[in-house]
Amino acid sequence: MKINAVEIKPGNILEYEGGLWRAVKTAHTQPGKGGAYMQVELKNLIDGRKNNIRFRSAESVEKVRLEQVDFQFLYADGDALTFMHKETFDQVTLDRDVLGDAAAFLTDGMDVVMETYEEKPLSVQLPSQIDAMVVEADAVVKGQTASSSYKPAILDNGVRVMVPPFIGAGTRIIVDVYAREYVKKAD
Q1: CATH number of domain containing 171
Q2: Rounded to two decimals, what is the model's pTM?
Q3: What is the pLDDT of residue 165?
């Protein structure tokens, strides 16, 4: 589907120079002299390289629609992550690099959404927030105010996040997977 260059939004998948690219950042610029243009930072979905492209406002680009399929994470074997299609029970193995830093939050049986293009898996989306246990937290420094100070804590999956002073070891918290930030104390 062709779209005008000014309609490109972060997260759009574009077909550009024979490859699939995800728009990471976009900026519409109207210089005082010359025509308006759209500055777009693209990331290649196959090999991960980045490219900054300047599209003229009148240009059109091919927007690609990825199929989103429900999968379940089964297990990790080194850097190989195995997922199962929830309807056909077919198994797919992907490299840990496909998920990036979010791979640390995978747990056995977790439901994920896999984005595919022509039945080739390109990316995996985890739930945006997960429940995790704090296994280690620094002691509170006397005199710190609760409103502005945070302390480092280590979760049961080994990820380090900053938490408020009242959170201690053994506390369950909700964590934003992609920002790696404390959201709230779990119920």
Answers
A1: 2.40.50.140
A2: 0.69
A3: 86
